[in-house]
TrEMBL record:
Organism of derivation: Mustela putorius furo (European domestic ferret)
Location in the cell: Nucleus
Protein name (record): Zinc finger protein 883
Coiled coil: none
GO biological process, one term: regulation of transcription by RNA polymerase II
GO molecular function, one term: zinc ion binding
Predominant subcellular localization, coarse grouping: nucleus
Pfam families reported in the protein's UniProt record: zf-C2H2
Keywords assigned: DNA-binding, Metal-binding, Nucleus, Repeat, Transcription, Transcription regulation, Zinc, Zinc-finger
Entry GO CC: nucleus
Domain of life: Eukaryota
Domain C2H2-type per the UniProt entry, residue ranges: 12-39, 40-67, 68-95, 96-123, 124-151, 152-179, 180-207, 208-235, 236-263, 264-291, 292-319, 320-347
Amino acid sequence: MEPKKICTREKHECKLCGKSFSRNTNFIQHQRIHTGEKPYECNECGKAFSESTNLIQHQRVHTGEKPYKCSKCEKTFSHWSSLRNHERIHTGEKPYPCNECGKTFSHISALTQHHRIHTGKKPYACIECGKTFSRSTHLIEHQGIHSGEKSYQCKKCRKAFCHSTSLIRHQRTHTGERPYKCTKCRKAFSHTPAFIQHQRIHTGEKPYECNEWGKAFSQSAHLTEHQRSHTGEKPYVCKECGKTFSRNTHLTEHLKIHSGEKPYLCNLCQKLFCYRTSLVRHQRTHTGEKPYQCDECAKSFSLSSALTKHKQTHTGEKPYKCNKCSDVFCHSTSLIQHQRTHFRNEILSK
């Protein structure tokens, strides 16, 4: 009787990092991490990939193919992983908890990004200018500034983008698609960041804290803007008149004074506006909508800024300090009015 043959798989060990593989194909793919080899090239835009599966997924950006369908809402996806992530919107599943604050997330990537709020870590650095980012996607989009490369073009308007996700977001301006729906108020959003920021209106979450005053914000951009009230920094300069601004949005709004542009039309009264946000605020005068509610007394407001000011009547918070006499105020407008008294007194004393 012949002895039974035992099938053994040969181990393939990487000489650079010591990692071992049972399959030769996996070993070859792994080696490309070290060599940087990308043998699979897209014949549409020339982008190259280390794995054939990544090329196939990428090509769906150009073809528009979305073979993975959600059984709940019929939405389709180009990647299976995107479908899996989407399904959690329906199930509400959030299996990834933050060990710092207990907040839970539906995706591991969202938890990883959230952790950086606590650590302040920005692991993605631009090799051109040294600027660091907490997300790899932000770095990739930033790098397009230096390279000028815009491989992804919209077939509707021919506008080109550095990154496929930017193209996908842009395409929603044509289709009107808003796939992210708030379960609290049914408001819908075209982009994930806008959806996450909106949810904080309901939850009251303010993860970004000013280390000067302790004031907290729901968005990192709002913290950055607030910190300029302490530093006096105004990095945005109007090329027309030299006026400087602490916020880019303020500069953008100011530029329309010079151009006279008013592209946003109210379909109820035909009034024109320079900014989309101004149109949205104006439309509430017709609809009576007051989406911002105080969690202390249930009073509602049409503007988020009005709710913020109102909340200070409950907290007694006075975050705006005069650098001349140390008086403090609830609102920035009150501080500005107060500072004018110092200015007038200085003129009269001369």
